[in-house]
Amino acid sequence: MKLFVSHSALDAHHDDPDGRTVMRARFEENGSPRYVLYTIKKFGLDHDAGFHLDVELVADDIEDDLETVEAKLQHGDADLIDIDYVSTARERADGAPIVGIYPYGRTVGGLVVPADSPIEGIDDLAGHRVGVVRRLDKNWILTRAACREFHDYDPDEEAEVVEAGSKSGLTAMLERGEVDAALQFWQLIPAIVDGGAYREVLPMSDLVQRLSATDEKIPVSTFLTTESYLEAHPDAVRGFREAYRAAVDRLRRDDDLWRELGAEMMDGADDAIVTAVRDGWREMVVRDWNDETVRGMHRLFEHLHDVAGTDVLGVDRIPEGTFRLEV
User: Residue 8 burial by CB count (10 A; 0-12/13-18/19+): exposed, middle or buried?
Assistant: First the structure.
């Protein structure tokens, strides 16, 4: 079973901007921010906050070495996306005029293997075929960093790494037996392990906490816009922050809304899967941030860079101005 969105579920909530500033939100069709987008549009939280969120869901492909949503933002076809902050730092250091405007969450994944696999942890990956979306995927970077730090080996050298090019392609690769393990994103794992043919060995969030050496929940992914959109429409950015917080509050408390999301956006998933996704989302999401949050993000980056280096991360620092706490 695949937890792909029904595009019609969001289409039903398309409405008229009615003179409000438009923010074009472009997100992956199988990404977890779609639950927030649905909530914002269903309850009109964008209009309540004084802006209009125009939502389009896109494939999770790679385009010119960028994820589709990254390419859309950098090519001027989007005003709002989410990606991990290491990718944000890498693209900003390369000159992309992008900026992180708000946290999303600890959007990492987990190591998934067949139920009868001998793999019990990241220290068992040597000699095995490991599927990843791409080598610059945050889950692979975390795994390499943790293996170097805690297990004294580099799986990029001692395992066979297989790039799938997309999250959906990675699941298919695992199901066809083309890899022995897959580093899949958290929101897809409940459907993969449902039925017992596969199991999750380790959530990547454990590695985030070990490497960052903090109890603070670090938002690995943030919402991004462009410098030009932020300068031209700061009120819309502030409005998005308000709408996002309202949506998070509702999603944290409203179990009936999650049942609706299961029916509308999870392609017929049963109650157990919907509940697992709901609980995982509530654990993953970050509602707000402050200076200490950003310091924690910098500490995690420094740990990753110390262990994995610029060749793995693709960047040696988080450029100045990457995160904007105030607008």
Answer: exposed
Q: pLDDT tens for residues 272-324?
A: 999 999 999 999 999 999 998 899 899 899 988 987 889 888 899 999 999 99
Q: Give the separation between CA 91 and CA 67, rounded to whole angstroms.
A: 12
Structural domain includes residue 263: yes
Alpha-carbon distance of 139 to 163, in angstroms, equals: 12
Tokens of 143: 């795994």
Nearest alpha carbon to residue 155 among 177, 134, 124: 124
Boundary (domain end) residue, out of 212, 234, 257: 212
The end-to-end CA distance of the chain, in Å, is 41
Q: State the pairing for strand pair 51-58/62-63.
A: unpaired
Q: How many residues does the chain have?
A: 327
Chain centroid to CA 303: 20
Range of the domain at 239: 7-106+218-313
Boundary of a domain, candidates 167, 192, 212: 212
CA–CA gap between residue 72 and residue 233 (Å, rounded): 18
pTM for the whole thing? 0.84
Q: 99 and 135, same structural domain?
A: no
Residues 150 and 225 reside in one and the same domain? no
The whole-angstrom separation of Cα 278 and Cα 327 is: 31
User: From its phi and psi, is residue 264 left (phi > 0), alpha (psi between -120 and 50) or beta?
Assistant: alpha
Q: How far apart, in whole angstroms, are the C-alpha atoms of residue 290 and residue 292?
A: 5
Amino acid at residue number 96: A
- Rounded to whole angstroms, how far apart are CA atoms 286 and 262? 22
CATH number of the domain bearing residue 234: 3.40.190.10
Where do the H-state alpha helices sit in the chain?
A: 7-11, 33-42, 45-48, 68-74, 85-93, 138-151, 155-158, 167-175, 189-193, 204-212, 227-232, 234-253, 255-265, 271-284, 291-308, 310-313
Can you read off the two tokens belonging to residue 61?
């492909």
